[in-house]
Amino acid sequence: MEIESILCPSCGTAVESTSHIFLKCNIVKELFHKITSWWDANYMELSSYEDWIEWLLNLRLSPKHKSMLEGISYTMWWTIWNFRNMNIFGSKLQSKASLFEEIVSRSFYWCKFRCEVLSQRDMA
């Protein structure tokens, strides 16, 4: 398998690793900062999944809001992974500027659908 570069395809400034792609990349840091601002939550630079779990557990939010923020974080990581793959394999490149809006949009639909499913389950 021939690899063009070992640098992160999203930012091109550091060696690609799962830790870098999902937590340490400047693009992810910027997105995570925007998400914490959106939710009026304390921003913290994360270096591991365990750091993220600890950050989430220590937030002063209701369990319902923590669950929503957890889903938004997973949506962010999925969006980043998709952005990375489009940079490597896709013919159409996505704008970095549109990533936050995509996360907000996908999160809204995820929360809306999840709430509808939970409500229907409660009614049954």
Automatic annotation (TrEMBL):
Keywords: Nucleotidyltransferase, RNA-directed DNA polymerase, Transferase. GO terms for molecular function: RNA-directed DNA polymerase activity. It comes from the Eukaryota. The keyword Nucleotidyltransferase applies. This is RNA-directed DNA polymerase, eukaryota. It comes from Artemisia annua.
